[in-house]
């Protein structure tokens, strides 16, 4: 258990979500085990002990998000508490898909009191605690520390997206106050620089299952390392003849190892239950597109944020954008040969499923950078014979979206 907790604490600092000393995790084995074995009188321990006593959980994480995550969460938490109808309570409601399907909304409380934190955690998998001038995030797991880690990183992602999307929306509405603009300037300065070095990915085409697996594992790991997805959420596949090798649902892209399923395209054999929930979308793309053997899917932040931005503030479909948007939209950069459509689509195979919207969008693209953004969700990219072009597109589109985001904000007078 201690090794597991150390692993997730290390992941949180490697991805820049937390400073190493700011993560405290506890898990129930025979007795309560702590990620920091020595009790230095940290007040978080008392709170965490009380939560374990009051709830039927097996793991709990209480950590201070770092850098830009800390800054956006403080802003969102203050706003949520100001908007809340009950004193000391509020909630953050992000509009991205990860939150919609996984977290719903994020409760916010303004105290480290055990009662109020337990009350919030009984409603959701995690909560935001505004403690004076700083934010802490509590997240639990019922069976494993991994659940607490996934919830925590998802909450950070959701808040990042919610903050930047909200700022752009307010700029469009003309409702930015000088205080908001000042906070935005401060937060913008905390953003880490984009990486522009491409990883050295294996060259294809791959002709054996072993070689393809190795390429999937490598590309998945780099997608997480470059911050282009939270580890639990993306997916990746490679077509080998009539077989699609695809990451399993709920697998971490940086630890694919044994979590890759071979699925026959004629449906004769597939570990269909464990294959990614987006398998049907991947399959439809390969069926329609001969010139693609690789698909990479991540949740790059500014691609998601930009997909939420729409000029039609009075659109009758507002609130239904993720499933029913019928306005053709795209991220385009004529000078860079970039034309990435933004389409609606829910996870899975329902009537509004992205298996119906994504394949047409992806196969309609041409040029060097072939990809499509699913509204509020993430980016899917194609590779001709391996993951080198798929990865470069994932990164290139995200860089463009980040620059485009700040251009739009500037144009609207938001900075
Ligand atoms: Zn996704």
Compute the average pLDDT. 90
Low-confidence segments, ≥5 residues, pLDDT <50?
none
Q: State the helix count.
A: 13
- The CATH architecture of the largest domain would be 3-Layer(aba) Sandwich
Separation, N- and C-terminal Cα atoms: 47 Å
Q: How much β-strand is present in the residues? A: 15-25%
Q: How would you characterize the largest beta sheet?
A: 8 strands, mixed
| Ligand names | zinc ion
The SS-based structural class is alpha+beta
- The geometry reads as globular
Helix/strand order? HEEHEHEHEHEEHHHEEEHEHHEEHEEH
Overall number of structural domains: 2
What CATH first level of the largest domain would be assigned? Alpha Beta
Q: Kindly identify the CATH topology of the largest domain.
A: L-fuculose-1-phosphate Aldolase
- Tell me the CATH superfamily of the largest domain: Class II aldolase/adducin N-terminal domain
State Rg.
21 Å
Biggest sheet, strands in spatial order? 10-9-8-11-15-14-13-12
Helix content estimate: 40-55%
Describe the structure.
Helix 2 crosses helix 5, helix 3 runs antiparallel to helix 7 and helix 10 packs across helix 13. The protein has 13 helices and 15 strands. It folds into 2 domains: 189 residues, Class II aldolase/adducin N-terminal domain (L-fuculose-1-phosphate Aldolase, 3-Layer(aba) Sandwich), CATH 3.40.225.10; 203 residues, L-fuculose-1-phosphate Aldolase (3-Layer(aba) Sandwich), CATH 3.40.225.10. Helix content is 42%, strand content 20%. The protein has an 8-stranded mixed β-sheet, sandwiched between helices. By secondary structure, it is an alpha+beta fold. Zinc ion binds next to loops.
């Amino acid at each position: 258990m201690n090794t597991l907790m150390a692993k997730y604490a290390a992941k949180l600092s490697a991805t820049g979500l937390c400073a190493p000393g700011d993560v405290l995790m506890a898990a129930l084995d025979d007795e309560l085990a702590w990620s920091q074995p020595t009790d230095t009188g940290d007040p978080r321990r008392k709170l965490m002990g009380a939560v374990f006593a009051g709830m039927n959980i097996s793991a709990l994480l209480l950590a201070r998000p770092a850098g830009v995550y800390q800054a956006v969460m403080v802003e969102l938490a203050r706003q949520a508490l100001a908007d809340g109808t009950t004193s000391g309570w509020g909630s953050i409601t992000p509009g991205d898909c990860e939150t919609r399907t996984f977290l719903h909304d994020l409760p916010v409380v303004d105290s480290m009191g055990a009662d109020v934190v337990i009350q919030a955690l009984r409603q959701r998998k995690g909560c935001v605690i505004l403690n004076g001038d700083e934010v802490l995030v509590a997240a639990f797991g019922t069976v494993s520390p991994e659940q607490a880690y996934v919830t925590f990183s998802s909450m950070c992602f959701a808040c990042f997206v919610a903050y930047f999307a909200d700022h752009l929306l307010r700029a469009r509405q003309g409702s930015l106050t000088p205080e908001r603009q000042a906070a935005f300037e401060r937060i913008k300065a905390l953003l880490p620089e984009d990486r522009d070095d491409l990883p050295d990915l294996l060259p294809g085409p791959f002709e054996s299952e072993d070689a393809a697996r190795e390429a999937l594992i490598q590309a998945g790991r780099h997608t997480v390392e470059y911050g282009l997805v939270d580890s639990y959420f993306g997916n990746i596949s490679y077509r080998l003849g009539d077989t699609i090798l695809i990451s399993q649902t709920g697998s971490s892209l940086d630890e694919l190892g044994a979590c890759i399923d071979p699925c026959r395209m004629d449906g004769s054999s597939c570990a269909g239950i464990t294959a990614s929930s987006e398998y049907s979308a991947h399959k439809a793309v390969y069926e329609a597109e001969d010139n693609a053997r690789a698909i990479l899917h991540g949740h790059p932040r500014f691609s998601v944020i930009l997909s939420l931005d729409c000029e039609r503030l009075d659109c009758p479909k507002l609130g239904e954008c993720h499933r029913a948007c019928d306005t053709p939209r795209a991220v385009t950069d004529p000078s860079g040969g970039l034309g990435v459509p933004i389409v609606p689509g829910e996870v899975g195979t329902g009537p509004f499923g992205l298996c119906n919207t994504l394949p047409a969008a992806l196969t309609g693209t041409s040029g060097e950078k072939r990809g499509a953004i699913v509204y509020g969700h993430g980016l899917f990219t194609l590779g001709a014979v391996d993951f080198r072009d798929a990865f470069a597109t994932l990164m290139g589109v995200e860089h463009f979206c980040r620059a485009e985001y700040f251009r739009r904000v500037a144009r609207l007078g938001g900075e």
